[in-house]
Amino acid sequence: MMTAVKDILRTMDYGLAPESDEHARAWLAAHGAGFGHFIAGAFTPAERLFDVFNPARGERLARVSQGTQADVAAAVAAARKALKSWSALSGDARARWLYALARHIQKRERLLAVLESLDNGKPIRESRDIDVPLVARHFYHHAGWASLIADEFPALKPVGVCGQIIPWNFPLLMLAWKIAPALAAGNTVVLKPAELTPLTALAFAEICVEVGLPPGVVNIVTGDGATGAALVENADVDKIAFTGSTEVGRAIRQATAGADKKLSLELGGKSPFVVFEDSDLDSAVEGVVDAIWFNQGQVCCAGSRLLVAESIAERMYAKLRARMEKLRIGDPLDKSIDVGAIVAPIQLERIKRLVEAGEREGAKIWRAPGPLPERGCFYPPTLATEVEPASILAREEVFGPVLAAMTFRTPDEAIALANNTRYGLAASVWTENVNRAFEVAAKIKAGVVWINSTNLFDAASGFGGYRESGFGREGGREGLTEYLVAPAAATKPAKAVKAPLSALPGRAPAPDGDAIDRTAKLYVGGKQARPDSGSCYAALDPEGKVVGLAGLGGRKDVRNAVEAAAKASAWGAATAHNRAQVLYYLAENLESRSEEFAARLVAQTGVAVREARAEVETAVRRAFYYAGFADKYDGAAHATKTRFVTLAMNEPWGVMGIVCPDEAPLIGFVSLVFPAIAMGNSVVVVPSASHPLSATDFYSLLDTSDVPAGVVNIVTGEAAALAKALAEHDGVDAVWCVGPRELAKTVEAASAANLKATWTRLPPRDWADEQGRDYLRRATQVKNIWTPYGE
Ligand code: NAI
Question: Which residues pair with 682 in a beta bridge?
Fold first, then answer.
């Protein structure tokens, strides 16, 4: 019997509004024999097939090949072969290909959206209105970049062959985030989609054929984690870009340590959604719907921790429950559905397990009462209240439609709770007070902050995390630099004047003549400090004569120095003008003692006086350069969505570890330390082990130049041991390390524990070369703050 209009008006119920899947089913049927990999512009025969399911109905959709090491190697070889001509194309020529891809994606948007919803279980409303339009937007945006790169990044070149590994939550969108910038910058790629959701990537491969993209520029190898691992381990891959779990991100950091591969990681999150007393509560409730029930909460930046002012908590929970009762859960292809299916039974089990564990710990669980479909992977929208900050639901990424709520009393408490996580991907801040909104946005450690909004994305804005949410950005100018590198220096790197390090840590031989008059100590917290070992070592000239004694620092000294650096955090909050003045003063003081520093270089390295003077001159010039930049390397206002201003703020890492090159003892030190402190970091520096005295001579300069205590800490000693201690230390946010590959390996492997950013592939360079913004960029991480305007 047909429902009468008056009945519909009374209940205001939705009828069924199914999107037709006929076209997608026909496409799948045409590939009924199974999919091969897409290598060198063609599909390989389907082999070692595994099933791909539709999670909403539990039925098999397709069969896909499990990629072997040999498949990966073939794809990498194809990408390598294509690299030369692809990277040699003009930017405009590459732009045309990217425009063609964007247009063909739009032409096929219906197939892609339906296929995505079938494969992943996400509501068609989202795949049709959010995922696929953003995919096209990414290709268009990066087509523009392809034309502009030569002008905008004249000093950089493509990285080479990029291995890209993506997860199942936004299969096609993550492909676009990876492939579009890589291709624009002149790289070629091998992409491995997630084993649960490979279908839209294969449809994209067909689009590559359709537009006639040169073979090998894009290669797609399907398979599980083992296929991903084969890509990571392939020696001919120049860069790995990964999005997925923090656990696998850490394994990839370990596996690539010392492999000379560029790496970007976009990992998990436990993002706070902070609601102040004065916020527009109804908007905030709608915000929560987008924050945690969008894509069933399977979103790395999902606002999964609701932090709400105690005074309004009960009101907010009541409104939320009322809203949750209205959420419609069901067939993803129904256009009126709000919440679709969880991606796979294994993920459903994980969600159930975590919620049960939370309940056992005392959280109060409330599940939306609406009916769930009888078959398929569904989980109701869930609100957990009375969650303790230490409980599993507050700590672990659930990756499901589960909101963990906590209360706070003061803004400071809200910020402390927001930052009480090892992650730092995103945050949402709700208040009608603009001053408070920006204060909180500035203090939350996260790569993206949405003010009175949530889960907004655009190709022009960078996206990526702080802390264990990974490093590197995707999108816009920030993301593009991940796919570019500085070419090897045209000039030969300065020759290392190697003094025998075997003198470490033995008893110091007697100093020769009056070349030295004292043992240099360490410099920690603005004071000279004895090394914990109580030992020193001899710095020798090329003839083996002792030119001075330096402290033999160790792990304990690194700990003290990191503590002192952390205490100096006010430096990062000081005005850039203030930092610039201090750096000018330091540069002036260095200049006034040029002769002394030149003499020290001659004594340590045996260079001619003329060369030593030139090195000091360059060091002085560079010091002024970075002093000048202290208040000029500023951020941007990205052009993203209408009625939003997206502020890209360059923020200092916090505490940085810096391991200087063994050669070029003065210019190496200045080139690394000055950009880092200019941007507001405090640093723990390991100077040249062979020639430490140019750095220890800085103590008196630091004392007399108003550099606050703890901003620059210097620990002399054996580079490998000190670098390892820095890389392992939880309080160090980023490490730069110049040295041989073995040292890079040590640092990168040790950094995996807290996933700190490392920079060990500093371009081989003549330290006297002009350098520039790259060092400033590396001394900062970008936070994008999205602010709405208008009523
Ligand atoms: P995952 O991190 O295992 O998978 C992501 C991608 O990495 C897939 O393509 C997978 O095949 C590949 N992979 C797995 N092991 C690999 C290895 N050793 N080397 C190279 N590639 C490898 O994530 P999974 O298992 O699908 O989901 C587990 C949990 O991870 C989720 O419950 C969620 O909490 C989190 N997750 C977070 C994502 C994010 O974007 N932040 C995305 C997906 C999952």
Answer: 655
- Helices vs strands, H then E, count in the chain: 29, 32
Report d(CA 538, CA 519) in Å as an integer.
9
Q: Which residue's CA lies nearest to atom 14 of ligand 1?
A: 225
241 lines ligand 1 (CB under 6 A): no
168 lines ligand 1 (CB under 6 A): yes
DSSP state of 46: P
Give me the pLDDT at residue 540, please.
92
Q: What Å distances lie between residue 398 and 120, 292, 297, 342, 511, CA to CA?
A: 17, 11, 8, 12, 62
Query: Residue 286 and residue 607: Cα distance in Å, rounded?
Result: 68
Helix ranges restricted to H, 262-344:
281-292, 310-326
Instruction: For the beta carbon of residue 785, count every other beta carbon within 10 angstroms.
Output: 24
Which structure tokens are listed for 262? 């560029």
Question: And the tokens for 653?
Answer: 């890492």
Active site residue 536: no
Rounded Cα–Cα distance for residues 68 and 384 (Å): 43
Question: Which residue CA neighbors atom 12 of ligand 1 most closely?
Answer: 225
Residue 506's pLDDT is what? 43
Task: For a ligand 1 pocket test, name from 50, 65, 119, 165 the mutation site with the most ligand atoms within 8 angstroms of its C-beta.
Answer: 165
- 334 contacts 18 by C-beta, under 8 angstroms: yes
Q: How do strand 757-759 and strand 42-43 relate by DSSP bridges? A: unpaired
Predicted pLDDT at 489: 60
Integer Cα distance of 93 and 88 in angstroms: 10
| Whole-number Cα distances in Å, 217 to 220, 265, 409 | 10, 22, 54
Catalytic residue among 266, 397, 474, 615: 266
- CA torsion 130→135→141→146, rounded to 10°? 170
Cβ proximity of 678 and 486 under 8 Å: no
Ligand 1 pocket member 332 (CB < 6 A): no
DSSP 329: B
With both helix axes pointing from N to C terminus, report the angle between 109-120 and 171-184 in degrees, rounded to the nearest 10: 130
Instruction: Identify whether the C-beta of residue 785 lies closer than 8 Å to the C-beta of residue 449.
Output: yes
How far is the CA of 711 from the CAs of 152, 593, 649, 683, 782, in angstroms? 33, 22, 21, 6, 21
CB 536 within 8 A of CB 519: yes
Please tell me the predicted confidence (pLDDT) of residue 502. 41
> Is there a contact between 515 and 603 (Cβ–Cβ < 8 Å)?
yes
CB 327 within 8 A of CB 369: no
pLDDT at 736: 97
- Going by their DSSP bridges, the two strands 712-714 and 682-686 should be labelled as parallel
Taking the C-alpha atoms of residue 512 and residue 709, their distance in angstroms, rounded to an integer, is 34
Whole-number Å distance between alpha carbons of 174 and 176: 5
CA of 225 to the centre of ligand 1 (A): 8
Q: What global pTM score does this model have?
A: 0.95
Ligand 1 within 6 A of 224 CB? yes
What does the pLDDT read at residue 765?
A: 67
Q: Are 470 and 265 in contact (CB under 8 A)?
A: yes
Q: How far apart are CA 674 and CA 281, in angstroms?
A: 46
- With a 6 Å cutoff on the Cβ, whether 251 touches ligand 1 is yes
User: Residues 6 or more apart from 566 whose CB is under 8 A from it?
Assistant: 654, 655, 682, 710, 731
Q: What are phi and psi of 454, to 5 degrees?
A: -160, 160
Nearest CA to ligand 1 atom 21: 228
User: Active-site residue 208, yes or no?
Assistant: no
Structure tokens that stand for 346 in this block: 């294994």
The DSSP output letter for 482 is G
SS3 at position 768: coil
Q: Pick out the chain residues at pLDDT < 70.
A: 1-3, 489-517, 762-765, 770-771
pLDDT at 493: 46
Cα angle vertex 784, ends 463, 568, to 5°? 110
